[in-house]
Specification:
The chain is α/β, with parallel strands linked by helices and 389 residues long. It folds into two domains: 203 residues, Glycogen Phosphorylase B (Rossmann fold, 3-Layer(aba) Sandwich), CATH 3.40.50; 170 residues, Rossmann fold. It has 15 helices and 15 strands. The strands form three sheets. A seven-stranded parallel β-sheet has the order 5-3-1-6-7-8-9, sandwiched between helices. Helix 9 packs parallel to helix 10. The longest helix is centred in the last third of the chain and has 30 residues. The two termini are 32 Å apart. Keywords: Transferase. InterPro entries: Glyco_trans_1, Glyco_trans_4-like_N, Glycosyltransferase_grp1. It comes from Acidocella aminolytica 101 = DSM 11237. GO terms for molecular function: glycosyltransferase activity. This is Glycosyl transferase.
Amino acid sequence: MRQIGIFRHNLFKLSEPFIAQQAERLQRYRPLYLGRLRYGAAPNEAESLALEDLAPQMRLLPAVWHMLSASPHPYLYRLEGRRPDLLHAHFGVEGVYALPLAAQLGVPLVTTFHGFDATLSPLGLLANPAWIRYAMGRGRLAQQGGLFLAASSFLREKLLALNFPPERVRVHYIGVDTSAIAPRTPAQEEPLILHVARLEEVKGTDGLIRAFAQIAPQHPFARLVIIGDGKLRKKLHRLAAETGFADRIDFLGARPHVEVLGWMRRAAMLVLPSIKTHSGREEGLGMVMLEAAATGVPGIGARVGGIPEGIAEGETGFLVPERDADSLAIAMGTLLANPPLRHRMGMAARNRVEHLFDIRRQTAALEDIYDELLISREASGAAARQAAR
């Protein structure tokens, strides 16, 4: 069995279960997780090598040094002579940092783009010190990276606009585990409006709170449940209080993935009212929306970024204009007032996810991509050796 290095600076974050979920579905490749810091537990029996282990008493020091230097040597030291057959970096930032390591190992590099890494403006990238090297090295990644996977068709178009080579940019939906996520029954549903997102500007949570305040008087049993954390939490708490409905808006913070799935089973709908920020940042797709759909929950999303690829308008949910609290309130109120419509859309959402976003089918396609890349590289190497004789 071949080994693949899964490269992500911050390993096993609660907000990024999709990375490990994809890697753990591999059948012909064994994942080895490579990163700077661990933010959660690795999957059972999975192997991970983190730079924080180089100095346990000063765990941030190796991570900061690598951020500044981009040197592959700490990872080469941790690998102890081992050589994965291929590296797969998640996010373009990681792709830039993984490029020197792939070159030292002599292996191909696959980079998956998830959202901000393809949409944020250069000034937006330069505003974050951790992304400066990416802003300066993205062109080199486009030239030297082996293959680029876009998490949506929308992101592929963004990458092409950034001069990534069309022949090496493919759309690949990561997918969700439809065998592990069973559709819920109507009896499990409660009048809950669920929002699962980092509390950042791009997620449009403030507009959702304002929309909920519009429909709350007409739906006295409805509650808004917000799962996630971020720098806007205090501001959003104040906004909830200003609406006069703070007692019906629950901020649960970041929760384990299994708990999030439990809330989905209870929800009447999942709402993702993302926006395009002034810095250009947009939603790549919205994995949480696909998980809700697998549960049989209809979705409401903004018509922005890759969200329209996850919601079939009028069939599995509703799409509304971004930054439009009035339209969002109408869509939410429509679903709350019409149980048969909710259940019909939820069933359609489940069927659509099974056909388009099943993680086992998508991961099998990913392994074919890995095989193709390795076979192509081996053929090129053989041709080069033949020419040198």
